[in-house]
Amino acid sequence: MAVDNVKRTKIKQILAEGKVGEDLCVKGWVRTMRESKNVAFAALNDGSTINSLQLVFDVHQTDEDTIRKITTGASLSVTGTLQESQGAEQAFELIVKEVKVLGEADPGKYPLQPKKHSMEFLREIAHLRPRTSTFGAILRVRHEMAYALHTFFHKKGFYYLNSPILTASDAEGAGETFKVTTLNLENVPKNEKGGIDFKQDFFEKETNLTVSGQLEGELAALAVGEVYTFGPTFRAENSNTTRHLAEFWMVEPEMAFYDLEDNMNLAEEMLKYTVNHALKNCAEDIAFFNKRQLEEEKCKPQNERSELALIERLQLVVNNAFERLTYSGAIEVLKRSKPNQKKKFQYLIEGWGADLQSEHERFLVEKYFKKPVILYNYPKDIKAFYMRRNEDNKTVAAMDVLLPSIGEIVGGSQREERLNMLEQRMSEMNILTEELSWYLDARRFGTAPHSGYGLGFERMIQFVTGMSNIRDVIPFPRTPGNCEF
Length: 485
Ligand code: 4AD
Ligand code: MG
Hints:
485 residues; alpha+beta; binds 4-amino-1,4-dioxobutan-2-aminium adenosine-5'-monophosphate; binds magnesium ion
């Protein structure tokens, strides 16, 4: 039987529905190879599942040179007969009839060895880390979650909107944009005032990579009702944390005729739906992450250990109504809290108006309510210009969804749909109304109450996989000082 003539079967399918005695062809990469006097065993993985297929070679029947090339990382095309496994670890193994080494991986040079590598080391070889169990699982979970999000919105009648990547606006007004230019940086043209003459630039104005697709999302929602974006967003914030990337993917639904409460309901329903999808459709990968996390927890000091295992945290989202609390209510809880009284918080809560840090968010979720929390009605001065002002003139109709171990995963608001209020807020915040006159047009013509939010896709993947660093849930992370691969 020639290796090249048999149709390839994926390992996931073989492990699920293989039949003893079947002749099969498999292709993949060697994870481990172990040789004894008469037989050799190789674990072959093809990425279709976290599990590998055990290949059994008769050492005497296989060319010596070929056996020598079957090392960790090598790619193989193999034909053989499926049989019940002798070992307890797997149901099946493949008795190899013919093997072709498609690509060797010199054991002296291949950086991945069958042992535990640190996450830091794997980040340095991000071009090879998809070959590890952890990152294979990450890639599959990312795919399933993206699929679940599209399915959720599609079923609800939302339209997928492709908002632009290149833009002249800074939607969040935080000034953390990456500039985009074709000007010659060694000889930048100047205007009469001595500033950069962007009139000579590609777009004839200053441009940057988008920090959010929201503003364009609003334009579409105020025409077709309900839309969502799902695309890359870019932030040049110099924060080296385990929850920030310079390039991350964001899902931003935007809905006409939704008020803040409708907005919160949608976010909660979306999180329940997608986490439930993961529990059902990524069961093997999540079981792997659950085990991985239990091992990691064991290495932590007692007081830093999480009270819940990964799967329990996921079930917490699916099975509980989220706690809803105003910002003012949260400040009261935090002021009276033990870590605040005992000065254990890095940022002490002294009074109303303080911006909440991740330590406060996690206290509310993990210690106080012990379930997901939605905070709403934040002080206007710590939120973006587009949020709808409340009657009290102090707060805006903003909301953040907080999850255990992550903190903020969703941020959104009801939008200011009243033209005069919006113009007033923009002028208070020194945002030029001329620059955003297209955005204001949505209020000038046929304005309507509307709301939306942004979900950080990588934070969601962190939540579902329990990975502690956001750099380990995106294939090729971009952070300050890192843009390799
Ligand atoms: O809270 P943010 O900044 O909200 C917005 O951008 C709004 N325009 C969204 C909207 O209303 N349409 O960001 C939304 C979410 C955060 O809750 C967080 O999950 C994620 O995006 N996020 C990041 N994820 C990774 N790295 C970063 N640097 C992030 N910044 C925000
Ligand atoms: Mg936010």
